[in-house]
Amino acid sequence: MSTVASTVREWWPDDRRDAETRLEALVRGNRFTISVVFPLIGIVLLLASATVPAVPDWLAFNGTLVLLGTLVMRSPLIAAVAPVADRRALAGVGLLTLYAYGIEYVGVHTGWPYGAFEYGVALGPMAAGVPLGLPVFFLPLVANAYLLCLLLLGDRAEHAATRLGAVVALVLLMDVVLDPGAVALGFWSYDDVARGGALAALSGGGFYGVPLSNFGGWILSATVAVATFDAAFDRAALRRRLADCEFALDDMVSFVILWGGVNAAFGNAVPALVAALIGYWLVRANRFDASLLRP
């Protein structure tokens, strides 16, 4: 027992700074695996789960695997942001977590603001119809969009309306990629589109199975989330961190590969092209570099 205890003590970080240093080294040493290999494996497993009847039940859309895989792909973002997350930032993340749960609960049970929908796949443990891992899926969309806009806008990001407007627009574009791919996989479905109701008729059958109301809801939810993130984090500290952390947007690289690939496989041309556009912006920001693509 003493040997086990000593091993645990040796492995366990001494403090927060030690934990951040270890995580950063782990991410930096495994960029290709985390940001390219994991999403490629994700594409194969998700497509097989959706289209191949022979995939065993324990593997098809395994919620635990989905959540763990997502956490691995989020690790570069966590490692990048953690050193600049002071008490105010942590409080903001806490508020955003509560907000994510709250608006999703309202959405699931009332259909507002996204449109009536229901989950077809349990994305990990669920409570009251909402995935407990929801913040892992939602909050990084906001953080990634914010960081990329800081890089692309440069000095223009100092203008609040320009900065916030650009980030909200980018979050919306990310949902243009995410939602059609998730609907095609069967992660969730929208009642009005599935039934061909009035909203579906209004939106021409929906945008690849997604009603227009969903994107209106995302404008609302993204605006609140982006404003909260902006108020919580020190923008100057984030800029300094972006300057010396080459992997800060590797999670967005994973997003482009995974959801761009899923949409391409299902023939969702517009979402796939939007994913490619986001990939182009990552290249422009020098965040989709040769070191990442080299195993």
TrEMBL record:
Going by the UniProt record, its keywords in alphabetical order are: Membrane, Transmembrane, Transmembrane helix
Where are the membrane-spanning stretches?
32-52, 58-77, 89-112, 132-153, 165-188, 253-283
Q: Which Pfam families match?
A: Caroten_synth
Q: What is this protein called?
A: Carotenoid biosynthesis protein
Organism of derivation: Halorarum halophilum
